[in-house]
Amino acid sequence: MRNLARYGPLDRYNPPPAAGMCISVFAVVRREGRVLAGVTKRGGRWASEWLPSIAKNTGRDLEKEWAVWRLPSAYVFEGEHPDDALGRVMRSQLVVDTFAYSRPVVYSYSEPSEWYPGNRHWDLAFAYDVTINQTPRKHPQWKELLFLDASELRKRDFGWNNDFVREVAGSKQLSKPTLRHQKT
């Protein structure tokens, strides 16, 4: 019998997956058929707040992680609503206060873990189409931040996210951005 995805105190719930679980939000910012993506600078808020698992890599794996392209994104904090995490990404990574966003499309991936052989890691990703009426002012933690067309997306290395990014960003709009989020 398979366990339900209910995690918490072991007297009533299952233990978390043996190889862990990540819950993330991704901002798919489109402009004239292009999608915003970038390469991060080492350390800083990527290693401490937005993608702290990156610091768990060592040697060549760490070098590769700092070289891959990424969509604006972050892990969801415990107890944080994904919409609020998206707002955090937009304000902190792109310095955008007002934007429209779609309902998220939720992707669920489970893959064998390289860190914990014999176990699977689970990723739950909330992808939002985002519309902005201003040019994003990239946070200094981005080394490069560009709008890429679909052919450019295929040429860039998005690390373990390659298939996910190509599916999400390389396709037509996920759903129509209608909700408003403003700085509070």
CATH superfamily: Nucleoside Triphosphate Pyrophosphohydrolase
CATH topology: Nucleoside Triphosphate Pyrophosphohydrolase
> Stretches where pLDDT falls below 50 for ≥5 residues?
none
Q: Give the helix level as a range of percent.
A: 10-25%
Tertiary shape: globular
Q: What CATH first level would be assigned?
A: Alpha Beta
> How widely separated are the two ends?
46 Å
The ordered string of helix (H) and strand (E) elements is: EEHHEEHEEEEHHE
Radius of gyration: 17 Å
Helix-strand makeup class: alpha+beta
Overall strand count: 9
CATH architecture: Alpha-Beta Complex
Largest sheet: 9 strands, mixed
- Work out the strand percent: 25-35%
The structural domain count equals 1
> Helix count, per DSSP?
5
The whole-number mean of residue pLDDT values reads 83
Please characterize this protein's 3D structure.
- The chain is an alpha+beta fold and 184 residues long.
- Strands 1, 2, 3, 4, 5, 6, 7, 8 and 9 form a 9-stranded mixed beta sheet that branches.
- It is built from 5 helices and 9 strands, in the order E-E-H-H-E-E-H-E-E-E-E-H-H-E.
